[in-house]
Amino acid sequence: MRFVETDKLEPGMIVGRDIVSTKNASVLRKGIQLTARYIEYLQEKGYVGVYITDSLSEEIQIQEPIEPKLFYEGMMAVSEENVDAMEKTATEIVSFITKRDEVGLDLIDLRSYDDYTYHHSVNVAVYCVVVGKKLGLSENDLRLLCQAGIAHDLGKMKIPQAILNKEGKLSDEEYACIKQHPKGSFDILSKNYGISAVVKQAVLFHHENENGTGYPLGKEGNEIPYLAKIIHVVDVYDALTSKRPYKKPYSPIAAFEYLNGGKGILFDEKVVEALISVIPAYPAGIDIMLSNGEEAIVVNQSADSLRPIIKIKSDGRNVNLYCDAEYASVYITESGTTQKDYAGKIETLNENRQAVKQLKKKVMVVDDTRMTLMVIKEALQQEYDVIALNSGIEAINYIKERGIPDLILMDIEMPITNGITAVRTIRENGYTKVPVMFMSAAKDRETILKCRELGAIDYILKPVKPVYIYERISEAFHMNRE
Ligand SMILES: [Fe+2]
Ligand SMILES: [Fe+2]
């Protein structure tokens, strides 16, 4: 079987794997032939795609990470807020995964917008166990981790779908409402006396960042329980690679770039590395494009996650990109699960181009390195009005003459007027509220403290990663829901 995105589905294709939801044990069963109506339904409900079988993909077998029945039970337990059933499912997931030498995480979880949280919860639990196993956790810890993974977003059940699925920016109140959910999850678990305090803590702190900028309490570093750190990384990975009404899914590689960008700032480094080592960069069954122009499907993983075994579409030949000499200089240029990396957001405003110009937020980017400016501009310009400047002085003058942008992204190490001095001057000139993110290659405490004193909302480590910058700015504008 192979994966086909919803907008590339055609009537007549045969479904290769059940699609399940909590409202309807099976939305589409394996073996069913797609019709135009089914495809329309899948589009409307927000499914990212479907696994189909055809002659080209007959031999491609993709292992389920856990039994589908178990996955379904987990979803139902979450939807019913049944804490005992969650505990039972967690125990079964752990015993299923620990018994296996390898657990394939190639399958893309197929979920509708409505069912997002249920699928997400079980998926996070499964990924947590695989990552935790890689990190060498004991079976007992894995069980606690898995319980916390399933339960981490229980508090979201009380948040209206209209907020969770809202297209575009959230208001401050809506954003504050989203931020209550870890406490909500904690409270639901607290009603159940049998639940370990370790699980409750992991749930409560799954949105805390290493540098103390997370919520609910702004804990940092070692104050954050280890299990919470694992859930945090897995949670963000799953959210980034999911399709939501307000964004397209990122490819695994783009999501890795984000996690790498946040290593040591938002995320625990070892956890990020463990996750990247267990999740295939190019999952089996997806379409890819090669640098020689050929189209192919990923068949299986090889020893190098960036060079899997593939099937060339035009002639059905199998090629191992890792060791096939003929393909030694050929590489993967695009993978089919997503649009190009940071163009991740759906352009809901595009229908009205006049309005777009007015509504676009102004982001000022200041950096003395032309290359960095170019990379950032390219990442942001589709979504924002980017003002790219080369020095701190230019930024100060621009604001004096033309007013304040909606956000400033400021390099620190610049000649004459460095970023910290520039922002201090801007603040002294009366612009005390404009949100500022600093970028720097340094991560010494003194510099970071200076930035905090100036009210910086974020600190980005160089070299900059486009996906990371894009997502951090989205978050600053309350575009994200996690
Ligand atoms: Fe969450
Ligand atoms: Fe989550």
| Average pLDDT, all residues | 92
In CATH, what is the homologous superfamily of the largest domain? Hypothetical protein af1432
User: What is the second-level CATH architecture of the largest domain?
Assistant: Orthogonal Bundle
Helix content: 40-55%
Number of strands: 13
**Rough shape?**
globular
CATH class of the largest domain: Mainly Alpha
> How are the strands of the largest sheet arranged?
7-6-5-4-8
- The proportion of strand residues reads 5-15%
Low-confidence stretches: 338-354
CATH structural fold name of the largest domain: Hypothetical protein af1432
**Quick one: biggest sheet?**
5 strands, antiparallel
Q: What's the structural domain tally?
A: 4
Written account of the structure:
With 482 residues, the chain is of the alpha/beta class. It folds into four domains: 2-18 and 31-55, no CATH class; 68-275, Hypothetical protein af1432 (Orthogonal Bundle), CATH 1.10.3210.10; 287-335; 348-476, Rossmann fold (3-Layer(aba) Sandwich). Helices cover 40% and strands 12% of the residues. Strands 7-6-5-4-8 form a five-stranded antiparallel β-sheet, with no helix packed on it. A hairpin with a 5-residue loop joins strand 6 (309-312) and strand 7. The site of one fe (ii) ion (FE2) has 7 residues, from loops.
